Amino acid sequence: MYNIGVDIGGTDTKIGLVDLNGNIIDKLVLKTDTISGFDKVINDIKNTVDNLINKNDLSISDIETIGFGVPSFISKNGRVTCVNLGWIDIEFVPKINNIFKGVKTYAENDATVAAVAEYRFGSMKNHNDVALMITLGTGVGGGIIINGKPFTGANNMASEIGHIVIGENYYDCNCKTNGCFETFCSATAIIKYAQKLINEGRDSIISNNINSLEDITAKMVFDAYREGDKVSKEVILRFKKYLAIGIGSLINTLDPSIIAIGGGVSKADDIILDGLCDMVRKNVLYKEHDFGEITIATLGNDAGIIGAAFLGEGRI
Amino acid sequence: MYNIGVDIGGTDTKIGLVDLNGNIIDKLVLKTDTISGFDKVINDIKNTVDNLINKNDLSISDIETIGFGVPSFISKNGRVTCVNLGWIDIEFVPKINNIFKGVKTYAENDATVAAVAEYRFGSMKNHNDVALMITLGTGVGGGIIINGKPFTGANNMASEIGHIVIGENYYDCNCKTNGCFETFCSATAIIKYAQKLINEGRDSIISNNINSLEDITAKMVFDAYREGDKVSKEVILRFKKYLAIGIGSLINTLDPSIIAIGGGVSKADDIILDGLCDMVRKNVLYKEHDFGEITIATLGNDAGIIGAAFLGEGRI
To answer: Most CB atoms within 10 A, among A193, B11, B56, B307?
Structure first.
């Protein structure tokens, strides 16, 4: 038997055939059609799933579950609004149930999906009590696993840890609140703060490599930090200060046995982990006791497919 | 059959005989001996439990479980350090197991105990998915119930929501972090901010009723607010602003179906709840969707005994 994982993104949708050990046997990638509407997208996915099954000399009866990771909130009754995809109050779960009749289907927010993958096959394996994944990318996302199952709260609104308030910031979050975790610790936050300092007239080697401040990437800031750039040091120290505050608050709330940091920013793992535990300890209430391990996620981009493929596990 | 709940506080220890419907049949109160050490305290408790049982013509075989609420952290191996009680790294759970041999014993932090009581018999009844209790007293405490069981995290450090960082404050928390929820929303925080404004020369009717700023209580501030006092209005608006930020962050993390506010400050329930939902909505990510109900806890001081008596339920 196999599972299929569907990782719906704003640009591409990745569809993987996954064996029961979490290995991706085969995968197909299609452009996500954000113009023609949901029915077109789900039709494209159905055709690609059929291709993937045929291509591997399988039939639908060889597929145990099909899971979907969606870059948005999914309501308890399975409805999805995702402005980036052009979906307004779509009956997502009822429609996939109908199209993939006979196969068990599941759908979750993409950050929860990544946490499921890391819990089953990656950095959070065997953490059966409480496991927390933090994704540092364009925004900050979160996925919580409690007793081996994705924890999504009473209304599927849980684990939106990018929007816990952890301080006061010089700009508001897209969600209109001030001080959200993601306004301090996302790639966007790193870029914005570097732009701000350089715009204020500070010298930085980053300026040598760009035509305009818009060209700055988080990677440039981490690279310049390695070269001793003072502006980048200030940006990264601020990022780490607030990362420690955010993780401390989450430990005081959830007390995970493991915290895995993923997303694009986590590629600078050496810089992120250096001294982080000691910084987090300052923000934890029980400073003299051991808290959970802080580590880097291991599955990278494959987490989206693998996690989606295993959304049903532990629930059946 | 009956349960016994033991609510250990810094001044008094309350011991209640509780029937299986959560009614306190009888209770005895003794001074908590914070001078003579843990063995004396636990011996006093044992004698009082025996008295309570005899007094009600029962024997130990009529007691299903004995539960303890402790005003401190309890480690996974049952050890307790509580400076207020003069206990340093006490083998709490092993010792109560030994002294109450033959009866099932349980122990949890007092805020978790109160949440168990409210979940089983009070304001959070039937909220079987995720229920959150917030206690606003000298500090801010929290208790989380997930799937009908107390959620205490991987290392019993969870639900210390008084120490999530939600902003920047003009004084540091006792825990040495700046910006903790309890430095904005405890009775202590309300008193301190009123003292600060009056000390800065602001006129307030509170000043008419006190000899020194040390005499100010949170109740005085709420009472003066009702009388239109401007300083008190500023203090209460600040308290509510941050209460909404804290609750918003907790919804974004835990998404409870109910949030019950307890503790001494919650007696001003009309002032606290007035407009609170709309303020919280501004801090919730999914502003257009319904989040959990926000209400006031109903069991008051009895929650300590009742919750302790029912710590074993759902776990046995």
So the answer is: B307
C-alpha dist (Å) from residue B219 to B184, B208, B270, B294 = 16, 15, 13, 22
Instruction: Please give the single-letter amino acid code of residue B268.
Output: A
Identity of the residue in A129, A151, A153 whose CB atom sits nearest the CB atom of B154: A129
Predicted complex ipTM: 0.96
> Phi first, then psi: what are they for B279, rounded to 5°?
-70, -40
Amino acid at position A12, single letter: D
Q: Let me know: does B96 contact B135? Beta carbons within 8 Å.
A: no
CA atoms of A180 and A139, how far apart (whole Å): 10
Residue B259 scores a pLDDT above 50: yes
- Answer yes or no: are the C-beta atoms of B74 and B108 closer than 8 Å: yes
Looking at the partner chain, which of A73, A164, A257 has a beta carbon nearest the beta carbon of B253? Answer: A164
Select the residue from A124, A253, A280 to test the B interface by mutation, using most B Cβ atoms within 10 A.
A253
Task: Produce one character per residue of B267-276: b if its CB has 16 or more CB atoms within 10 Å, e if not.
Answer: bbeebbeeeb
Query: B253, A248: Cβ pair inside 8 Å?
Result: no
Residue A253 with chain B: CB contacts under 8 Å: 142, 158-161, 164, 250, 253-254
**Rounded alpha-carbon distances, angstroms, from residue A165 to A69, B164, B285:** 26, 9, 11
pLDDT digits 0-9 by tens, A42-81? 999 999 999 999 999 999 999 999 999 999 999 999 999 8
Q: Residue B186 contacts by C-beta under 8 Å, 6 or more apart in sequence?
A: B136, B137, B138, B139, B140, B162, B265
Of the CA atoms within 13 Å of residue A101, those in its CB half-sphere come to 2
Specify burial of residue B65 (Cβ count, 10 A radius: 0-12, 13-18, 19+): buried
Distance of CA A152 to the CA centre of its chain: 14
Query: Which pair of structure tokens corresponds to residue A290?
Result: 């051991």
What is the rounded CA–CA span in Å between residue A268 and residue A226? Answer: 10
**Average pLDDT of the segment spanning B168-185:** 97
The pLDDT of residue A84: 83
* Amino acid, res. B136: L
pLDDT in tens, B89-138: 999 999 999 999 989 999 999 999 999 999 999 999 999 999 999 999 99
CA A278 to chain centre: 25
Given a cut of 60, whether residue B316 has pLDDT beyond it is no
**Do A134 and A181 meet the contact criterion of CB atoms below 8 Å apart?**
no
Residues near B99 by beta carbon (within 8 Å), at least 6 away in sequence: B42, B46
Please state, in angstroms and rounded to a whole number, the distance separating the CA atoms of residues A157 and B141.
Answer: 23
Neighbours of B215 (CB within 10 A): 12
Using a CB-CB cut-off of 8 Å, the residues of chain B touching A256 are 153-154
Residues 6+ apart with CB under 8 A from A28: A14, A15, A48, A51, A52
Distances (CA, A) of B103 to B57, B116, B224: 18, 20, 50
Compute the mean pLDDT over every residue in chain B, rounded to the nearest whole number.
96
Q: Taking the alpha carbons of A30, A106, A113, A126 in that order, is the dihedral positive or negative?
A: negative
